[in-house]
Specification:
The chain is mostly helical. It has two domains: 391 residues, Up-down Bundle (Growth Hormone, Chain: A); 55 residues, no CATH class. It is built from 19 helices and no strands. The chain is globular. It is a multi-pass membrane protein.
Length: 460
């Protein structure tokens, strides 16, 4: 039930992307405003993850999960019924609120419900598949729904899934008493971190992506983000009941896992963002065939995540698996830097996608294990929210950095008289190269910081 809820959230992250042209035509979005269909969701989602995770620790993770599913389902109905652009953007913001509440507590619930190491690793394998492969499933589902029916069904399909998940979770997910508010909820800390994350994500997806990192609005947004984040850290060091207890950062595994998660997700956007654009703008794929192109990758990730990730992680340990995973992701991205203008799917695209997908599936459980290894039972919710925040911030940063780098390269070549298809392909090559560099940085962090979770738990 937990992973079904997570799948609904993850699917929504990509299923909407392929429907954007139809949404633009129907509701009269300008090209600049169309991005807010994605950005409104991303800002509220990333901004509220830490707060939702901490509320789960204090109140009840089950309660926060059920509330999140309810909010997300109602917001999906509003999205599907939207008849104006303003209504859709507002409903997407509300969807992000429900998504944050749902996903922030799931990993913490898995760790408390499955304390036995082997069962825990198996549960994390299923969760990791949903979290990583759900994006590819969303591309296929979004293309099919948009082309065969209407973009409204992209949102309305969440209704039966959400209701079924809610009913089943009420029955099967056990109650968990929260630790209580004690000295009270850190409302100032909540306001500071939510403001910081929302400002930071807005800065990345709006002025930075559109005008560059040296633009005045970008610099102002960055300064406000840093100030609010610094004030939040000061508040957490002095508050009687902090929203994010700084003690969890004493674990080098937690710090390393969150940095690695951020870098891997940023790098993976090279596949799920630039790869989609390459297939559609250079190879001429439509939305449905783009989703079908990623179907083998999804199937491979399902098999590896559910069948092999747990026994391999148990046998070899999370650190070797994570290093092997990031090496495979790097090789996959390197193969994507070589895709030509006139590509063969079987020769050029499929091998690169499969190698990258294999790496993502094999290492995802290890990242989750490291992220939760240094947290106590009362901090499981905020640790879960933290690793999800790293995922969202990594995605936002990756989207801005890779897309701006690719666009700059394409624009420069186009002005030099290079044909459009060649200029676009060269731009995507640069984006894939940067993505590979980000994952290599993650390998360096793993070598420097990560220790065996069982050994570090006793030492820390």
């Amino acid at each position: 039930m937990l992973c079904t809820g997570m799948l609904m959230i993850v699917l929504d992250g990509t299923v909407v992307n392929v429907a954007l042209p139809a949404i633009q035509r129907d509701l009269g979005f300008t090209q600049g405003d169309l991005a807010w269909v994605v950005n409104a969701y991303l800002i509220s989602f990333a901004g509220l993850l830490l707060l939702a995770g901490r509320l789960g620790d204090l109140v009840s993770r089950r309660t926060v999960f059920l509330t999140g599913i309810s909010v997300f389902t109602v917001a999906s109905l509003l999205c599907g019924l939207s008849w104006t652009s303003t209504m859709l953007v507002a409903a997407r913001f509300l969807q992000g609120v429900g998504g944050a509440m749902t996903s922030a507590v799931i990993l913490g619930m898995i760790f408390t419900m499955f304390p036995e190491p082997r069962e825990q690793a198996r549960a994390i394998g299923v969760f990791a598949f949903v979290a990583s492969a759900g994006g590819a499933i969303g591309l296929l589902a979004g293309g099919a729904l948009t082309q065969l029916t209407s973009w409204h069904l992209v949102f309305l399909v969440n209704l039966p899934i959400g209701v079924a998940t809610l009913v089943a979770a009420v029955r099967f997910v056990p109650r968990d008493p929260g630790s209580g508010f004690g000295a009270g909820l850190d409302t100032l800390g909540a306001a500071l971190v939510t403001g910081s994350l929302m400002t930071g994500v807005y800065t990345i997806v709006k002025p930075a992506a559109e005008h560059g990192w040296t633009d005045g609005a970008t610099l102002t947004g960055t300064a406000i983000t840093v100030f609010l984040l610094g004030a939040f850290v000061w508040r957490q060091a002095t508050a009687a009941a902090p929203l994010l207890p700084l003690r969890i950062f004493r674990s080098r595994n937690v710090v390393g896992a969150n940095l690695i998660q951020c870098l891997i997700v940023a790098g993976m956007f090279g596949l799920f963002f630039l790869g989609v654009l390459y297939l559609q703008q250079v190879q001429g794929y439509d939305a449905l065939h783009t989703g079908i192109a990623f179907l083998p990758l999804t199937a491979l990730m399902a098999v590896v995540s559910v069948r092999y990730a747990e026994p391999l992680t148990t046998r070899f340990g999370p650190r070797p698996m994570l290093l092997a995973s990031m090496t495979a992701i790097t090789i996959g991205l390197a193969l994507w830097t070589r895709v030509p203008v006139e590509a063969s799917y079987l020769r050029d695209i499929l091998p690169a996608a499969l190698v990258l997908g294999l790496g993502a599936a094999a290492g995802a459980p290890a990242v989750m294990m490291y992220a939760m290894s240094g947290s106590s039972a009362e901090d499981a919710g905020v640790a879960s929210g933290l690793i999800n925040t790293s995922m969202q911030v990594g995605g936002a940063v990756g989207l801005a950095v890779l897309s701006s780098a690719a666009t700059a390269r394409t624009r420069a070549l186009s002005h030099g008289g290079v044909p459009d298809a060649s200029a676009l392909t060269a731009g995507y090559h640069r984006g894939f190269t940067i993505a590979a560099g980000l994952v290599i940085a993650g390998i360096a962090i793993a070598l420097l910081l990560l220790r065996d979770p069982s050994a570090s738990a006793s030492a820390e």
